[in-house]
């Protein structure tokens, strides 16, 4: 039987005793002193028992609160450590990605530079071939009877071409 049940029994017994007691007058009753003292002792014991249970319950609750607080603090600490680990990993990953990107940019720069040099070399070769062809044509024209006339025409055409190139350069800039 629980302490609460015992307390209810004592209170019921007090009520029964009062209801069965003799009346002295309208405001008073007659009860045996020893009977009332026995019921008061039982009431006192029940109240002490309830208080002990309350103290145990309160202590258990306090202990549980302290344990839960410790567990909460541990969870927070663990989460903080994990967050720091994740942050560090993301920084390391970003650093690695940027390094990789830098290598790719360097390789692209080297490739473009190599292609530009090859392109320039090809253009110079083409220009050299053109000059050689021009010289050959000029030498063949000198063999002709009207060499001066043809040379002037070629020179005039070359000046026109240079003028057109200069105009195109001016338009671009």
Descriptive overview:
It is rod-shaped and about 165 Å long. The protein is mainly α. The model has no long low-confidence stretch (mean pLDDT 87). A two-stranded antiparallel ribbon has the order 1-2. It is 90% helix and 2% strand. It has helices spanning 3-20, 33-143, 147-172, and strands at 22-23, 29-30.
General form:
rod-shaped
Query: Helix count?
Result: 3
Number of strands: 2
Mean pLDDT across all amino acids: 87
> Which class of secondary structure composition applies to the elements?
mainly alpha
Binned, the helix content reads over 70%
Reading the helices and strands in chain order gives: HEEHH
Distance between the termini: 105 Å
Which secondary structure elements does this structure contain, and how are they paired or packed?
Elements: H1 3-20, E1 22-23, E2 29-30, H2 33-143, H3 147-172
Antiparallel strand pairs: 1-2
Care to give the gist of this entry?
With 173 residues, the protein is mainly alpha-helical. 90% of the residues lie in helices and 2% in strands.
Overview features:
single chain; 173 residues; mainly alpha; 3 helices; 2 strands; 90% helix; 2% strand
């Amino acid at each position: 039987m629980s302490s609460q049940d015992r307390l209810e029994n004592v209170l019921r017994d007090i009520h029964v005793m009062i209801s069965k007691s003799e009346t002295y007058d309208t405001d008073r009753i007659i009860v045996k002193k020893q009977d009332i003292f026995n019921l008061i002792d039982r009431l006192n014991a029940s109240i002490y028992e309830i208080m002990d249970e309350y103290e145990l319950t309160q202590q258990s609750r306090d202990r549980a609160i302290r344990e839960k607080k410790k567990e909460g603090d541990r969870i927070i600490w663990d989460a903080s450590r994990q967050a720091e680990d994740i942050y560090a990993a993301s920084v390391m990953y970003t650093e690695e990605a940027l390094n990789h990107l830098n290598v790719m940019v360097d390789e692209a720069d080297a490739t473009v530079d190599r292609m530009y040099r090859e392109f320039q070399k090809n253009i110079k070769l083409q220009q050299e071939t053109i000059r050689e062809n021009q010289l050959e044509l000029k030498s063949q024209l000198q063999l002709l009877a009207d060499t001066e006339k043809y040379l002037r025409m070629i020179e005039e055409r070359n000046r026109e071409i240079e003028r057109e190139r200069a105009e195109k350069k001016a338009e671009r800039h």
